[in-house]
Design brief:
This protein is of the alpha+beta class and about 900 residues long. The protein contains 29 helices and 35 strands. The strands form 9 sheets. Strands 12, 13, 14, 15, 16, 17 and 18 form a 7-stranded mixed beta sheet that branches. Strands 24, 25, 26, 29, 30 and 31 form a 6-stranded mixed beta sheet that branches. Strands 2-1-22-23-11 form a 5-stranded parallel beta sheet. The longest helix is centred in the C-terminal third of the chain and has 19 residues, at about 770-790.
RNA sequence: GCCCGGGUGGUGGAACUGGUAGACACGCAGGACUUAAAAUCCUGUGGUCAUUGCGACCGUGCGGGUUCGAUUCCCGCCCCGGGUACCA
């Protein structure tokens, strides 16, 4: 029998969907809306591999399902088109990144089209397109002209801040800002414009500041914290140094608490929420001021989460960069301190981390005074205290903090036990379970109560207060690169101003080279006339990769709008994303920033919601399965895996596309490279068996499998079903085509239900039997339940069971097969469309409505009860479901097989769960 | 170290609220059709013992516990994967 002609069918329907704009979505629709979004890809030169579509297939199935269920579904796709790889390529080859990007997008589009996705391509966005980045720049301008008012707990226009300054200076303002001195309204009114702007800059949500940044010399740019992994750049793996630079930052810290609280009202996976919670890192405690011995005018402020342990303080530690170090270090220790600061200051991020376990520090010769006991507390400096967190200084309590403990042990400093319950001769006792001892007025209190008591006391005597700290840092927002959004900013002197909104977009200028200038300025400094009409110089930094992705989900709603980033009408209709699917690697980058921008735009009243996505699902990674060949060291001979231990060999990766089930295609291998053409092989069982390993799917490991190849061989519907059938969406798994044959067979079997032996379309108009209805309705119920909880793998099994059962009955009943075609349309849209058309329908299956399951076809009269004795399953007994408990017991005790297992005993208890199980306890 | 996720047949996995463990599929074995192969179809397939039949026992990483009943809940441990890293 001929197999079903998937190549013609798939091409035919893809063409028709595109020509008829089948998936075009209107903003003007009376149906309820549903927004299904994929994280848009960065179009790399390598193209898509089979791992990329996993999430796209899942979201497409869901979008198609929701459409059949009567929703108006927004399901768009676009490209995160600015980024480093295209630019690195430009530096190497001189080809403009716009061209590289355009080519790559073309390739991506072809590959996506090949899989039959139901995207509305009229809504495509590209972050590198001026009509898109015009609005990225516009949002930046809004950030620049906003400040965060703690009193209203939201962002406000900077004009409200200026009004406040004019009335009362900044004495009455509660803002999230950089550190600032207090000034009065009189002070403010006396200031010139430059002074005023300098102060306002400290309040803006987009601001310039001189900070310690992650500098990557090889990439020639600064990186954000989440772009640095283990001291190396995430892209390229280059070393990262710490460097002091003036940089644009976004004041995401203003939103720390709201970003944390917002997690409770969205349906994101627990691990994703945890990752964000940890990254935000809220800790509640107190700041306490200590006087410095011999410096009555100086006090040092420390942050602690354990104010209860204040009587256990035996020394203090400052970060080496702490501004007070220089002022308090005594003559005797000056040289040693200077040397320590030098050594630690010059180390790269990588060295510092590698050395994290080594304990180092230096005594300054200075002492702090304990506020309650008056004791002199030695002040040390050490790398383990970070300048950027809290106040950059800690009160060290070695008995109850493991880092302080190790430090004290190393430098032979005393420890005082103040919370009972541990053994501080062995290790620090960090538990909250215990009572305070050796602690004056808090003796005998529990930890929590002691904390409150200490905070109350320090607030009373004015030496400290309750404080909350966040680990989250403001996000550095500039890159010294070409291929990104230009800042809509110019400078008068050192002060930044934004260009007029009417002058947007500020187009990325042409440059003669994509390298930094000789004086080390970013590439934009090469552009001719990179200045305003009035001759003021424009900013030469560009925005980082995550700028566009922080709001792109809004643009899809209204992608062609030239007067607004999104119209009120569109955003009020579509609201936020209902289901967002993407990789978990974006937990602390994109997914935090997009939440931040959403909250910001909400504060300004531009959008009616403050979370971008109600529900988020992270698809697992499809890993590569690499293959290896083993070459003898001295000669051009390759030895099969099982025999390689007998020889001295060098393993090397071999292209997985010429390996089938670990068996190497020797002829193709010989053609791979000239030096292989005369290679010799030592085989086992006449075959060359390759070694294998699971690695990331990457060109570098020759283990990339292109979806186009799978589609060519088995079809798009097969690939879609197979990727879903592999296992739960969230789970990572290595790619293997081992089970794909099962899906191929399934689709053939489905096709045959609608055809006779001669492969002619043939269905019957007779009424369905009870049994056929039962199979159909059970499947409708199962599949829709599975889809609602995104259990795609089990929905595929349900289809297989259904088709197997209908095939056993030789069912060719039109009404059954018609509903079945609709059911499977989300998963395998091409074959479903074809069958739908053959069934005599016009207008396409995506306009059909999803069948409803009916209880009447599923209700059973009897049930085959599994009967256990003491929990061990022994027999199965069929019984009517209408029986009462008593009738079941009576009926049971009459049966021979039951009596046999009773072994003459009388049952202590008989547990009956109707329709489930019977357990007889003897 | 800390925080998540996970350990189920030869393999991918199923079992949704504590109720028949191993659905579905791959692989393997045997058979039918065929000159042959492919395709298709049928049968079997967790382990051990018994196989003349019934069957019996063990079994969801390991050790305990709760329960009539535990892959599912609780306590302790081991291993694998991911995130994070001196955050006071």
């Amino acid at each position: 029998m001929a197999e079903y002609p998937f190549r013609e069918i798939e091409k035919k329907w893809q063409k028709r969907w595109s020509e008829e704009k089948t998936f075009h979505v209107s903003n003007d629709d009376s149906r309820p809306k549903y927004y299904v979004l994929d994280m848009f890809p960065y179009p790399s030169g390598a193209g898509l591999h089979v791992g990329h579509p996993l999430g796209y297939i899942a979201s497409d199935i869901y979008a198609r399902y929701k459409r059949l269920k009567g929703y108006n579904v927004l399901h768009p796709m676009g490209y995160d088109a600015f980024g480093l790889p295209a630019e690195q390529y430009a530096i190497q080859t001189g080809q403009h990144p716009a061209i590289t990007t355009e080519n790559n997008i073309g390739r991506y589009r072809e590959q996506l089209d090949n899989l039959g996705f139901s995207f509305d391509w009229d809504r495509e966005v590209r972050t590198s397109d001026p009509s898109f980045y015009k609005w990225t720049q516009w949002i930046f301008i809004q950030l620049f002209h906003s400040w965060y008012n703690r009193k209203s707990d939201k962002a406000e226009n900077i004009s409200t801040l200026i009004t406040a300054f004019e009335l009362n200076g900044n004495t009455d303002v509660d803002a999230v800002s950089s550190p600032l001195k207090k000034f009065t309204s009189a002070d403010w009114l006396k200031m010139n414009d430059e002074e005023k702007q300098t102060i306002l800059l400290q309040y803006r949500l987009a601001y310039l500041s001189e900070t310690l940044v992650n500098w990557c010399p090889q990439l020639g740019t600064v990186l954000a914290n989440e772009e640095v992994k283990d001291g190396f750049s995430e892209r390229g793996g280059f070393a990262v140094l710490r460097k002091q630079m003036t940089q644009w930052s976004l004041r995401i810290t203003a939103y720390a608490d709201r970003l944390l609280k917002g997690l409770d009202k969205i349906e994101w996976s627990e691990s994703m929420q945890d990752a964000q919670r940890n990254w935000i890192g809220k800790s509640v405690g107190a700041t306490i001021n200590f006087q410095i011995d011999g410096h009555p005018d100086k006090k040092v402020s420390i942050f602690t989460t354990r104010p209860d342990t204040i009587f256990g303080v035996t020394f203090m530690t400052f970060a080496p960069e702490h501004e007070m170090v220089d002022k308090i270090t005594t003559m005797k220790f000056r040289d040693a301190v200077k040397k320590y600061i030098e050594i630690t200051g010059n180390r790269s991020e990588r060295e510092r981390m590698a050395d994290a376990k080594r304990i180092s520090g230096q005594f300054t010769g200075a002492y702090a005074i304990h506020p309650f006991t008056g004791a002199k507390i030695p002040i040390w400096i050490s790398e383990y205290v970070l300048a950027g967190y809290g106040t950059g200084a800690v009160m060290a309590v070695p008995a109850h903090d493991s880092r302080d403990y190790l430090f004290a042990e190393h430098f032979d400093l005393p420890r005082i036990e103040v919370v009972s319950g541990g053994d501080i001769s062995k290790e620090a006792f960090e538990s909250y379970e215990g009572k305070l001892i050796n602690s004056d007025f808090i003796n005998g209190l529990k930890v929590k109560d002691a904390q409150h008591a200490v905070i109350k006391k320090i607030e009373e005597i004015g030496i400290g207060k309750a404080t909350t700290n966040f680990r989250l840092r403001d996000a550095i927002f500039g890159r010294q690169r070409y291929w990104g959004e230009p800042f809509p900013v110019y400078y008068i002197g050192k002060l930044p101003y934004t260009i007029k909104e009417s002058e947007l977009p500020l187009l990325l200028p042409e440059v003669d080279s994509f390298q930094p200038t000789e004086s080390g300025e970013p590439p934009l400094a090469r552009a001719k006339k990179w200045q305003t009409n009035d001759g003021y110089p424009l900013e030469t930094n560009t925005m980082p990769g995550w700028a566009g992705s922080s709001w792109y989900f809004l643009r899809y709603m209204d992608p062609k709008n030239e007067t607004e980033f999104v119209s009120k009408k569109a955003v009020n209709y579509w609201q936020n994303v209902d289901l967002y699917i993407g990789g978990s690697e974006h937990a602390t980058g994109h997914l935090l920033y997009v939440r931040f921008w959403t909250k910001f735009l909400y504060d300004l009243g531009y959008i009616p919601f403050d979370e971008p996505a109600k529900k988020l699902v992270n698809q697992g990674m499809i890993q590569g399965r690499s293959n290896f060949v083993y070459k003898l060291k001295t000669v051009n001979t390759f030895v099969s895996l099982g025999l390689k231990n007998k020889y001295d060999t060098i393993p090397s990766h071999v292209d997985v596309n010429i390996v089938d089930d670990d068996v190497l295609d020797i002829e193709k291998f010989k053609l791979l490279r000239p030096e292989y053409s005369n290679a010799e092989f030592i085989l086992e069982d006449d075959k060359y068996i390759c070694g294998h390993e699971v690695e990331k799917m990457s060109k570098r490991w020759s283990n990339v499998v292109n979806p186009d190849d799978v589609v060519e061989k088995s079809g798009a519907d097969t690939l879609r079903l197979y990727e879903m059938f592999l296992g739960p969406l969230e789970q990572s798994k290595p790619w293997s085509t081992h089970g794909i044959e099962g899906v191929v067979k399934f689709l053939r079997k489905l096709w045959r239900l609608y055809h006779n032996e001669k492969d002619q379309f043939f269905v019957s108009d007779r009424e369905p039997t009870k049994e056929e209805n039962k199979i159909l309705h059970r499947t409708i119920k199962k599949v829709s339940d599975d889809l609602e909880r995104l259990s795609f793998n089990t929905s595929v099994s349900a289809f297989m069971i259904c088709v197997n059962e209908l095939a056993d009955l030789k069912c060719n009943c039109r009404s059954i097969l018609s509903d079945l075609a609709i059911l499977i349309a989300p998963h395998a849209p091409h074959i479903a469309e074809e069958l739908w058309e053959k069934l005599g329908n016009n207008g396409g299956i995506s306009k059909a409505s999803y069948p409803e399951w009916k209880q009447e076809f599923l209700t059973e009269n009897t049930f085959e009860y599994p009967v256990s004795f003491n929990g061990k399953l022994r027999v199965k007994i069929e019984m009517p479901l209408s029986l009462s408990r008593e009738e079941i017991v009576t009926s049971l005790l009459e049966r021979a097989e039951i009596i046999k297992y009773m072994d003459g005993k009388s049952p202590k208890n008989i547990i009956i769960v109707p329709g489930r199980i019977i357990n007889i306890v003897l």
